[in-house]
Request: fold
Amino acid sequence: MNYKQLYMETFGCQMNVNDSERIATMLAETGYSVTADPAAADMILLNTCSVRGGAEEKVYKRLANLRPLKTAKEGLIIGVGGCVAQQEGEELLRKFPWVNLVFGTHNLHLLPDMVRGAETGERRCETAFIDNEQRLDLFPTVKGNTRMSSFVTVMQGCDNFCSYCIVPYVRGREISRRSAEILEEVEILAMSGVREVVLLGQNVNSYGLKTENEPTFAGLVRKVADIEGISRIRFTTSHPKDMSDELIACFGDVPKLCGQIHLPVQSGSDSVLALMNRGYTRNSYLGKIRALKAVRPGIAITSDIIVGFPGETEEDFEQTLSLLNEIRYSDLFYFVYSPRPGTRAAELPETLTREQKLKRLDRIHELQRSITREINESHVGTIQTVMVEGEGKRPGQVSGRVDCGRIVNFAGANTLIDTFVDVRITRAYQNSLLGELV
Ligand code: 5AD
Ligand code: SF4
Reply:
């Protein structure tokens, strides 16, 4: 078969990365293979994110940049999908006459048909949300993976309505995939050589809670752990309010579950957490962290922080700093608050200047940098199992992840790729470790 070339750019979260993988799988059946070179492409798709401010402008800028390519190559198809597409819809076709396709977050299954239409000059926008029953039947499944690690979507959407967050509006209502289909997908992946699965959803902890006759997320993790061939399980993202005792217990007695969890706290201040509609307090969050550390000593916990939420006082902010000191996250992602259209927080008056917000961001950065470095250094001298996934940073090195998720580079032959090996950690850097084969 003579493949046409598809170039894709993915912004935002791992959900989008997984959606792009599923798009690539679907469009392979329509005759497209993925290229890394936009100039060689017959079709360019942008898979967009709108979680924080400035996202729309970024997409507009990129689309403006693509115009000369379109002029130079007759028949080039340009498409926009993901969260900005969901939000802007038809407007994108109006603003950018060189765009052929706009597809929303519920409409991936329509892409093959939309692409066939675009090949004959059609311009089309599909952003309708699809009701839950129908959605379950429209999940494009992944049929194999050539890498050792694979995402597996277990749920989509979100019903939490944190006051700052656009996700419920652009990803729609929460829906859990059927567990039988998830387990079948994991089995197929395991047979194709996958050894690690990352269970994926906007809020995986609430998996199955609204569906009869389905396991809870903890139950699902245990079932995935029973599948032969799977050695490692990770999941993301978790909402602290739905982090059950049952799931915490899994970290104690499911050895395949890696010692790593992303549990976004957003703020260390109760009053800010209440304004954010997060559904937990600093204390109840700390209780969950203590329980996690008790069942899995050394567990790597990571988090997200928003600084400069409307009304955040210096005291509130210091509560966040003290929380970071108390928990000692192994890694942290921090963002300046930006109002998102249609969310409840967008109606709150902003109380801080951009400069004040950036200053707070800087203070977080400084504190976390040293904590991360110290935690990385605590690994030096230990022996850890590494899942070797590819070539390393330097020639002659290979690279992979240890149980807690950190990347390790070490001297070794390429034949080690796709295997598990034991490595002694010899040095720590800010974002990675150095090791030697034992
Ligand atoms: N402003 C700033 N950061 C935000 N996030 C989500 N919405 C906003 C917003 N309006 C951050 C949160 C979330 C991460 C994915 O993005 O920290 O956990
Ligand atoms: Fe961005 Fe949220 Fe959409 Fe993911 S779900 S792409 S983080 S807006």
Remarks:
- The chain is about 35% helix and 20% strand.
- The CA atoms of residues 171 and 393 lie 36 Å apart.
